[in-house]
Design goal:
Elements lengths: L1 E3 L4 E6 L10 H15 L3 E6 L15 H15 L8 E5 L9 H4 L6 E2 L5 H12 L8 H10 L5 H11 L2 H8 L2 E4 L5 E3 L8 E2 L2 H6 L13 H8 L8 H14 L1 E2 L1
Helix pairs in contact: 1-2, 4-5, 4-6, 6-9
GO molecular function: ATP binding; ATP hydrolysis activity
Family: Belongs to the AAA ATPase family.
Keywords: ATP-binding, Nucleotide-binding
């Protein structure tokens, strides 16, 4: 992925992008990446999932190819013989404690990015919903944020994606529909004013398939999904990150 402007070049790579099955090719890829950054300075090199290069050098289970990649990366980051003042290297990992110490020590700052707080989670729910119709109030979004403590951004994304299917499920299982002011048929409860006992199959059989609309999302749709979804980050994971930050890093 590349972003270019008049004054800055940003290249983002995953550690897997630097691995080749051909002897010597991986080191060349690392060298070429830094050479390109130097020629295009000021530049930022962002290495995602740098934990793919995990393991201490010299470990018995470390392949020769991986050792060469790590050695070349260390040499290039050291910048011996080069003017790298305008080349900025960033990396991301979920397991900093598993990295070779020589690698993470090459980074002047080791910043801990914590899980999203309540305010951030509230905003994420809105962002992932986008233009999807919903009946949630600001207080409902605040409640969702409060109930998703320890959820990562990915957890919230998965939650919303699952919730987006709820109106489809409701429509498929509905036994009652009501005709809206726009002339569309929307699933409803049996006690709702104007409710007609029918199914989506019966409406489709009458040629009204194009006239069926999904109900807007409600907070109950979220509660239903959240009742079975758990955060993917454990308390022990957080404690490990905080311990690493206390010893070797700094808060973001």
């Amino acid at each position: 992925m590349k972003f270019a402007s008049d004054s800055l070049l940003l290249r983002s790579v995953s550690s897997s992008d630097l691995v080749s099955k051909w002897m010597g090719e991986s080191e060349k890829l690392v060298s070429n990446l830094f050479q390109m950054a130097r020629e295009s300075a000021p530049s930022i090199i962002f290495v995602d999932e740098i934990d793919s290069l995990r393991g201490q050098r010299g470990e018995g289970n470390e392949s020769e190819a991986l050792r060469r990649i790590k050695t070349e990366l260390l040499v290039q980051m050291q910048g011996v013989g080069h003017n790298d003042r305008n080349v900025f290297v960033l990396a991301a990992t979920n397991t900093p404690y598993a990295l070779d110490q020589a690698i993470w020590r090459r980074f002047d700052k080791r910043i801990y990015i914590p899980l999203p707080d309540t305010k951030a989670r509230r905003h994420m729910f809105k962002v992932h919903l986008g233009d999807t119709p919903y009946n949630l109030t600001e207080r409902d979004f605040e409640d969702l944020a409060q109930k998703t403590e320890r959820f990562s951004g990915s957890d919230i994304s998965v939650c919303v994606r699952d919730v987006l299917f709820e109106p489809v499920r409701q429509t498929q299982d509905a036994m009652f529909f009501v005709k809206t002011s726009d002339g569309l048929w929307m699933p409803c409860g049996p006690k709702q004013s104007g409710a007609v006992q029918t199914t989506i199959q019966e409406l489709a059989g009458k040629g009204l398939a194009a006239k069926i609309t999904l109900p807007p999302l409600s907070k109950m749709d979220f509660y239903k999904i959240m009742a079975r979804q758990k955060p993917t980050v454990s308390k022990s994971d957080l404690e490990m990150h905080e311990r690493f930050t206390k010893e070797f890093g700094e808060d973001g």
